[in-house]
Protein: Putative ribosomal RNA methyltransferase 1
Organism: Lygus hesperus
Amino acid sequence: MCSSWQLESGTCKKKLDSSNTETKIVAVDLQAMAPLPGVIQIQGDITKKSTAEAIISHFKGEQADLVVCDGAPDVTGLHDIDEYIQSQLLLAALNITTHILKPGGKFVAKIFRGKEVSLLYSQLRIFFDRVTIVKPRSSRNSSIEAFALCEGYNPPTGYEPNMMNPLLENSSVDWSKLDEVNRFVTPFLACGDLSAYDSDRCYPLSFKGKYERKDPIQLPIRPPYADAMNLVTKMGDFHIEHHE
């Protein structure tokens, strides 16, 4: 969900046996995606019921082994607000996941770290045997993003997924009777060590046969700067002079 064309969909396709006709990959994103052979693509908002139903319909009663959500809202710079909006997006993804993930399956989702991360952890822990908050080496140190790695999908007995209730407020299950839901301590695992590359720094490139410039695998479909580039192309080279 909220799938980057190359990172999520492309990586999953490479990891799985593309020759196996039973392999099914469903990619969902708010923006248009370039076609990728062997991947079912849906353009839509995962917080909308119609999109959720479209995702579920493609599985035709079958269940997924893995669900990945790399979605994030347009950040405001106000970390508390960004964290809250991100958590709501994650809960929408979790709600869809409860409809399609098989028992014992895995769920990986982007989160924004903050003071309420323990609450989010506890909510995820209700549905999974093991939840770990991880930060890959590719993620900038200055960024508040991390990822929730959820393993062993195991929903509470009697839980029934409900599309009209993504926040689980009116579920028939009495959550207050669950043991020690709010007593979990969030484990945090930083991938890599201090000797690894720092994502916030710039390192010189070695051009002596070790570095090769390559074109992008997939060019942007409708970039916001397209109109400006077309205007520059039509007008040719120009410069602006300022006279006092």
Observations:
- DSSP finds five helices and seven strands in the chain.
